[in-house]
Amino acid sequence: MLVSPELASVLASIIKRLRDANGGKIQHACIRCPVLQMDPRQRPRLLEIIQNLHERNS
Q1: How far apart are CA 19 and CA 50, in angstroms?
Q2: What local confidence, expressed as pLDDT, does residue 42 receive?
Q3: 26 has which bridge partners?
Q4: CA-CA distance, 2 to 25, in Å (whole number)?
Q5: Are 2 and 41 in contact (CB under 8 A)?
Q6: If you compute the radius of gyration of the chain from its CA atoms, what whole number of angstroms results?
Q7: Is residue 15 within 8 Å of 28, Cβ to Cβ?
Q8: pLDDT digit string (tens) for the chain, length 58 residues
Q9: CA–CA separation, 51 vs 57, rounded Å?
Q10: Rounded-to-integer distance, Cα 57 and Cα 55, Å
Q11: Would you state the pLDDT for residue 8?
């Protein structure tokens, strides 16, 4: 699966936050979870969220 650098950055941030303090396994997350499966129709909204996050961090 290919993703844009922006999406990869967001996903990496999410994964980093899900890891426990020791850098161990991710708890309470499953790649089969429907919440983690992106609906292609939601891509414009996701890009809007990414842009908003970048603006807030600047």
Answers
A1: 21
A2: 85
A3: 19
A4: 24
A5: no
A6: 13
A7: no
A8: 567 888 888 887 777 776 655 566 655 656 666 666 777 888 898 889 889 888 888 7
A9: 10
A10: 5
A11: 82
If DSSP states are collapsed to H, E and C, what string results for 10-51? HHHHHHHHHECCCCCCECCCCCCCHHHCCCHHHHHHHHHHHH
Give the number of other CB atoms < 10 A from CB of residue 6: 15
> What are the CA-CA distances from residue 6 to residues 3, 14, 21, 25, 56 (Å)?
8, 13, 25, 24, 15
Domain ranges of the chain: 5-57
Q: What is the pTM for the complete model shown?
A: 0.40
Tell me what pLDDT residue 21 has: 55
45/26 Cα distance (integer angstroms):
26
| Alpha carbon distance 10, 15 (integer Å) | 9
